[in-house]
Amino acid sequence: MTDCEGDGSVGLTPVEIYEKLSAQGDQVRVLKTQKADKADIDTAVQLLLKLKVDYKKLTGQDYKAGCPPTDNVVQSDNGPASEEGDDLVDPWTVSTNSAKGVDYDKLIVRFGSSKIDQELVDRIEKVIGQRAHRFLRRGKFFSHRDMNLVLDAYENKKSFYLYTGRGPSSQAMHVGHLIPFIFTKWLQDVFDIPLVIQLTDDEKYLWKDLTLEDCQRFAVENAKDIIACGFDVNKTFIFSDLEYMGSSPSFYRNVVKIQKHVTFNQVKGIFGFTDSDCIGKISFPAIQAAPSFSNSFPQIFNDRKDVTCLIPCAIDQDPYFRMTRDVAPRIGYPKPALLHSTFFPALQGAQTKMSASDANSSIFLTDTPKQIKTKVNKYAFSGGKDTIEEHRKHGGNTEVDVAFMYLTFFLEDDEQLEKIRQDYSSGALLTGELKKMLIDTLQPIISTHQERRKQVTEDMVKQFMTPRKLDFNY
Ligand code: TYM
User: Fold this and answer.
1) CA distance 207 to 62
2) pLDDT value at 391 more than 50
3) What are phi and psi of 195, to 5 degrees?
4) Which of 18, 122, 180, 236 is close enough to 231 for a disulfide, judged by CB 3.0 to 4.6 Å?
5) Secondary structure letter of residue 341 according to DSSP
6) What are the residue boundaries of the WHEP-TRS domain, all occurrences included (predicted)?
7) Helix, strand, coil distribution of the chain in percent, nearest 5
8) With 70 as the cut, is the pLDDT of residue 79 above it?
9) Is 203 in the pocket of ligand 1 (CB under 6 A)?
10) Could you tell me the distance, in angstroms and rounded to a whole number, from the CA of residue 10 to the centre of ligand 1?
11) For position 10, what pLDDT does the model report?
12) Pocket flag, ligand 1, residue 341 (CB < 6 Å)
């Protein structure tokens, strides 16, 4: 057992917490290598996560093994860094102490967004004249900003457009990244509207230890995965910042306008930047904000600045758009609306999101059927009991079971999902059987994706990424 009861980091300096964190990381590794008792590993992981949250709160920096805290530490003062005991959710870190995952109801209150309730889902169904996507029916997209205004406008025959994005930090995207893209594709189909997709190769160059060439290459590779989701080339513009910024005066004019209206203090408060962050990071939020304004794309919107933007993304990206919405009226533009998704959890449990920087936490879009099977069987955190007898008697816990959580994202049939929930909770269904259902669901989804990706040629990427008019008249 580790010494994880109580608050192990109260009163410690940044360097002391850093050292404690490093030791705790080692401890988790040792326990895992020794195949220690699951409860002991879980407790050690919980303490590790808590220390990471405390470290970020105290230093404003993410913990990185081998990188001790720098001298210029500041207390991050709002939004992302949270009150004692709250979950940590920002564009770089998602962590919670709860095996059930982030408390999304609490997050809505803290971020000041609105819940997607049944009334809104019903309204969307009424407006589009068809059943809502399973992500809406099941609360995977759970929060919004101004979606009712978008629907009001749409009902009055006013168009809007979609904007989403990807930070190309590596060649391979993971299944979690598919969530916003699958949903965006559905929105594009049901509303029949333009879509712009930003590839922030500049962001990844600034944040990661990568060359500009790496980031640009990853942008093109990631664009292929995005195209393989089925977007319509006549309705979609995909752009890399490193390319488009230099060729579009309209885009850059908006970036500069935003930069003029947001202070260093504000971005420090929103993103937790410190004095030792490079100035590229400090001004980057303006670049992620700019596509929210339609005149950043004069070729699509004929220079109009009043076309409303709707942004589907996971809620980790909300800090960028809180800033965007704050600045919009001050520079004469409409505020973008948002639809926020929950996180697709890491294989090891819902305490963190699936993240490409931890290969064992993720199922990649490049994984083979065998790799998927091995990862699910080996790593997917189980809510089942330790022995078959106990499981049959007491049943499993679907609220913490990762295989079940993944099925809630990918299994289309609501009735089948409910039956699995009941059978697993009653003990009729065993962990191995549940994992097999997940494997059987994921393998064809990933294989089909890989097939579609193979069909995406360099020419098609070029077509999607060429600034041009789309099939809409403005
Ligand atoms: P990135 O590359 O980290 O993530 C791309 C999109 O995937 C979402 N996401 C997830 N969704 C569910 N479960 C997960 N485990 C998970 N991990 C990531 C992200 O919320 C995002 O929607 N800075 C951005 C790129 C960007 C962007 C945007 C994203 C630029 N403009 C507009 C959304 C909307 C980034 O690095 O995303």
Assistant:
1) 12
2) yes
3) -135, 135
4) 236
5) E
6) 13-69
7) 55, 10, 35
8) no
9) yes
10) 33
11) 65
12) yes
**Ligand 1 pocket, 313 CB below 6 A?**
yes
DSSP state of 286: H
Q: Determine whether the shortest distance from the Cβ of 180 to ligand 1 is under 6 A.
A: yes
CB 438 within 8 Å of CB 268: no
| CA distance linking residue 89 with residue 203, whole number of Å | 19
Is residue 169 within 8 A of residue 204, CB to CB? The reply is yes
Short-list 382, 323, 314, CA closest to 353: 314
- Tell me the residue length of the chain: 474
Distance 242 CA to ligand 1 centre (A): 18
Amino acid making up residue 183: F
Neighbours of 385 (CB within 10 A): 18
Q: Sort 398 into a burial class: Cβ within 10 Å, 0-12 / 13-18 / 19+.
A: buried
Residue 204 Cβ inside 6 Å of ligand 1? The answer reads no
CB 366: neighbour CB atoms within 10 A?
15
Q: In what order do the strands lie in the sheet with 141-145?
A: 114-115, 141-145, 337-341, 308-314, 160-166, 195-199, 236-240
* Confidence category of residue 31, pLDDT binned at 50, 70, 90: confident
Identify the bridge partners of residue 174 per DSSP, sorted by sequence position.
Answer: 364
Q: What is the pLDDT of residues 270-325, one digit of tens each?
A: 999 999 999 999 999 999 999 999 999 999 999 999 999 999 999 999 999 999 99
Dmax (CA) of the chain:
68
Confidence of residue 6 (pLDDT cuts 50, 70, 90): very low
Residue among 279, 258, 277 at smallest CA distance from 323: 258
Q: Which residue has the tokens 């971020």?
A: 111
For 303, left (φ over 0), alpha (ψ -120 to 50), or beta?
left
β 160-166/195-199 pair status: parallel
Q: Ligand 1 pocket, 401 CB below 6 A?
A: no
**pLDDT, average across residues 145-162:** 96
Q: Which of 132, 191, 101 is nearest to 414 (CA)?
A: 132
> What is the reported pTM?
0.84
Listed in order, strand segments (DSSP E) in 224-381 are 236-240, 308-314, 337-341, 345-346, 349-353
Centre of ligand 1 from the C-alpha of residue 315, in Å: 9
> What domains are defined for the chain?
14-95 (1.10.287.10), 104-346 (3.40.50.620), 358-454 (1.10.240.10)
